[in-house]
Design brief:
One of its GO terms (cellular component) is cytosol. With 442 residues, the chain is of the alpha+beta class. The protein is built from 16 helices and 14 strands. Strand 7 and strand 8 (144-148) form a beta hairpin.
Length: 442
Amino acid sequence: MPTTTADSERGFCRDCLTLQKRETGRCYHCGSPRATRHPELFQLHLAHIDCDAFYASVEKRDHPELKDKPLIIGGGKRGVVSTACYIARIRGVRSAMPMFKALEACPDAVVLKPDMEKYVRVGREIRSMMQALTPLVEPISIDEAFLDLSGTERLHGEPPALVLARFALAVEREIGVSVSAGLSYCKFLAKVASDFRKPRGFSVIGEAEAVEFLKDQPVSLIWGVGRVFAATLEQDGIKTIGQIQRMELNDLLRRYSSMGNRLYHLARGVDERTVHPDHAAKNVSAETTFNSDLSTRDQLAPILRALSEKVSARLKKAEIAGRTVVLKLKTRDFKIKTRNRQLAAPTRLADRIFETAMPLLEKELDGTRFRLLGVGVHDLTTPEKADPPDLIDTKATRRAKAEEAIDILREKFGKKAVETGYTFGQSSRFEPQQPSDREDDF
């Protein structure tokens, strides 16, 4: 479909996808106010898709009676908020907020525990729809991804912007959740754009406007500038991206080393990263927050075993393995401890993960009370060289074979068909809060 600059300036309707004949507040065809216009609208091809309050949206889809109610997905009173619907967010609830604070802000909220298996399944359905648009899909987590739609105009018969809007409508219609989309010329600004006007957002940042747009934005908008580094910049008198734009590269390098290089280029809208469809998770992990603080081996070992089994199941399902086992603990005063140990060979066995993590845990059992325990596997790789027979510890080899038999039984009869001595009868004591393969878990 041929397009012109005039077409892009008049834009199209995001509800009926009709190209607009004139610049008016509403679509001339269906009357919708959701018209998208931008001088570079039909020239841009790099997109970021982010599902809106994903876990909560899936639950509201499956429980229509919750549609107009504030909904929090998270643990018990001692847990944290995994996500919250937009009704709850208006009341002040935020992701990672302790549950007791969330319920203080929104006492009438409905609270549901995360159902990660369901969310992963829905996320894969959405990802499959993305891959039907372009092979260049780079997942960031189960509910967001980058897409490079360059070269797809001939395939779809319309420019990437319209393909993206059509995709968003299809996800709502076929999956039952909404997404927000950002369209730009680079990954950094596509991600920034997708955060605008949520939920059901569709925002565009063009190359011609990038520097001017970024000028008045806070430095925290830059990818990689977290709360701690933003505080460092503020101490140096740097609060806006415009201030960085006026600084020389050498000065930024001298002050902030390699991060200075990132600041210099992203502040000017320069991001040469490409979309990598083979982008893989850096870790697979599971963690749980307790209803009351725990401190003893007898209390924590069964939980560590169950979490190890959860991580193992994820590794096996994804057909990956990892070389480094990481233990995560959070004390009652919210201080986080992480300990790790590298293995001689990659593993995806629950037994090996547990046997590696348990000594790390025992070293921390000095009477300190913990509110959270997690375990993960890093340095992910393919499973070909994972878990070779152990010629020294022959019992480990037998345990590996037993675990394989247990996996077969669980696959056939369900997860609770076989339980180990550590976890037998313990399922009611805790529920792993959020196993994940996101890059930034720990």
